[in-house]
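Homework-ish question, so no full write-ups if that breaks the rules, but can someone show me the predicted structure for this set?
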Amino acid sequence: MQLTRSKSPKPRDKQKNKRSEKLAVSLAVACGSLLGAAPVRAVAAEDVESKKWFFDTGLHYYDESDRVTDVSLSGQARRLWINGKSLILRLTVDTLTGASASGAAPATAPQTFTTPSAAASYQTVAGETPLDPTFLDTRVAVSANFIRPIGRNQRIDVGLSASNEYDYLHLGANASWMRDFNDRNTTLTIGTSIAADSVDPVGGAPVPLADMLPAGDLSNKLGDDDKTIADLLVGVTQVFGKRTIGQFNYSFSRASGYLTDPYKILSVVDPITGDPAPGPGGLNRFVFESRPEDRTKHGLYAGMKRAVAARGVLDVSYRFATDDWNVDSHTLDLRYRFGLGAGYLQPHVRYYMQSEAEFYSRVLFDGAPLPRFATADYRLGDLDSFTVGAKYGRPLSKGREWSLRLEYYRQSGSVPGDVRVGSLAGADLFPDVEASIVQAGFRF
Amino acid sequence: MANPCEVLVETGDHDEAFRVVERVEAEARRIEAKFSRYLENNLVHRINTAAGRAVDIDEETARLLDFADELYRLSDGKFDVTSGVLGRAWRFDGSGRVPSPNKIDALRKRVGWDRVQWDGSRLRMEPGMQLDFGGLGKEYAVDRAAALAEDEAGRSALVNFGGDLAVVRPREDLTPWRVGTEGEPGNPDHASTDWTVRTGALATSGDTRRDLLKDGVRYGHILDPKTGYPVEGAPRSVTVLAGACTQAGMLATLAMLKGPSAAAFLEDQEVEYRVRR
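A: Not a homework solution, just the prediction itself:
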């Protein structure tokens, strides 16, 4: 089959088109007389609104039992033009308070730690997972994206982003190109983004694998550092008949520079007793973690949305990610949205599992040579998590909608058996994390 | 109208949607009852059975006849509301029968808007001639119904009568209505989400389900009233996006009548279009 479509507007040959122009105009006038509107309304009539603002606001509350609490306020303003252009502005302010696991292992006796600023020290009680209790962080993030169509089958999207917290600054830029094929049943997306981030840790970035020193001693700290991240995404969205739409993405990400978490440490323990080895200045021996300066990730995503009943939508997706730190992860996400009264209810379950990074080490053994890279950050350990929850949304008139989402999150992990020596045999080396999530949103 | 008809209204109010649908349906039925040539006891039937007598014409029908007159002029006689009788000789039913030249000649003598006496209030046609609004009735009904939907709802609505459709008012979020059109010949159930319509109308001329194949020659179903034969080199179908459905439909039909130069014709009209061959 051969298909001819309208081409882009081009300079017109007045002489050649004189007769045809007359025809189009005469036809419009004739239609006007027939329909009682003279002349017939244009495709984008001028009396209709041609641009509009839309706003999305949200309050997000995340609370880990006895750990971190994150309260975040977000707002998004979208400016839409009837010709398909749009501008999207986002602002997020979030505050993180509470304690997070430092990476140190629990011990049978109380342990003393130096704060990152080296200004003070704190203690944890025997048998408990050491947390860094001084955590308080406020982050402000802004971004802007501009999307515009090019002809009838292409769109471009360019954007800038920035975020700032007291020890971290992110600056990024992104661009993507979308093209429809196959009678708009297929959309190809190619996107790229780059980010230049700088890290200015409290007290300075620690020397990798240096010992934690007593309060007041900053000789194990360096200055600030930075990293760059480049991402590439190639995606295809495909319509499968009237009820189903699928999406497939491949993503590539390369980060280089300072990828270490400056606040994470590892315990150095006796290889027989499992008890902490003695460190400088009367402290137990802890070393700051060390990560490679490069990380290359590949991701594959497949998702499908299917209309299953009058108002029901099934949304299933699977994501696989792998990187050269040997962290492989699988995410399975399932949502089912159905009409409930004047609104909708959307139950949600999500399962996530990942393998540990090749340099993940729950503890280091005293007397053994230090590895080049080591981390005890649970986020790079062998873990899985389960999320279950539901969202209720209630559309109102004129496109307004409020929604409420409640979720429960549970994460558990495991450590290699060979670290369970002596007193560590019975210790909880990878405590479960539970969190509740409440999110309220209003769109207008 | 022997076609699936639908109305989509952007509203959360069931009663309001229902009122819009009721008015649209009533209008569609009114127009069908008044102008269908398959019904008896309507004006078209009276005209077609007047046997040479003059018939009084009401105001709405007069507007349609004036419009048909203008179309006849604009198309150099190729758009002719009296050409319906030719369709009886041609059976686009897959039977592969091409009518005899004698039969076509005989029917051709019964075609010719220029021979109809139309003074704006009375119409007189030679016996044997037939008037058929089939070429523009559906598009006209869509435009009329869309105007009523806009009046009733005051918000975005899409009126679709068998693939000819009109959108009144943009949607609240300014996103377009996405319209799938019938796909490739031989697989008419393959839809493509091919058009985005914010306001305006879409109409298709030609039908991927109807043609005639004889001795390796495909005869499309758009007939040239001058020759009595299908237009040579006509596309399988032409779809046009324009301000009103009647406008889109007429541009699509005129393009079909242009045969091989259908796309070039539409390019000159500066409308969005698609030509399938």
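Now go work out the reasoning yourself. Hint: Chain B has a mean pLDDT of 86.
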